[in-house]
Amino acid sequence: MSMPKIECNNIDKCCAASSLLQSIALEETAISHILNAEGEKIQKVISLHNCDKKDLIKVNKSVEDMVDKITALEIVLKSKLDTITPLLEECDKKPPKPEC
Questions:
Q1: Which of 2, 23, 85, 86 is buried deepest, with most CB atoms within 10 A?
Q2: CB count, 10 Å around CB of 7?
Q3: 78-95 burial, b for 16+ CB within 10 Å, e for fewer?
Q4: Mean pLDDT over all residues of the chain?
Q5: CA-only gyration radius of the chain, Å
């Protein structure tokens, strides 16, 4: 699977805002995959017959740490979105450029 590309041939304010919005969407997609993997990790450990209370607590702590980091990232992404929203609203009022 190749890396997604965000392209703008003619970079202006609207195209930059659109690219930033696309980057937020890609990051949110990556976060959803991480969270899904964390859920699968918990399910796997629970399904093991030889795991004990210590193992469950260790895995739970690992997942909790990941969720804390993702929460911090979500705050950054929300701030990024709040910053570009006025630009996107301004761009909605303009006719679209074919290059972007």
A1: 23
A2: 9
A3: eeeeeebeebeeebeeee
A4: 88
A5: 20
Tell me the pLDDT tens digit for each residue of 22-49.
999 999 999 999 999 999 999 999 998 8
38-48 b/e (C-beta count within 10 Å ≥ 16 → b): beeeeeebeee
Count how many residues are written for the chain: 100
Q: Half-sphere exposure of residue 28, counting CA atoms within 13 Å on the CB side?
A: 12
> What is the per-residue pLDDT across 2-21, written as a single tens digit (0 to 9) for each?
666 666 667 788 888 988 99
Report how far residue 35's alpha carbon sits from residue 44's, in angstroms, rounded to the nearest whole number.
14
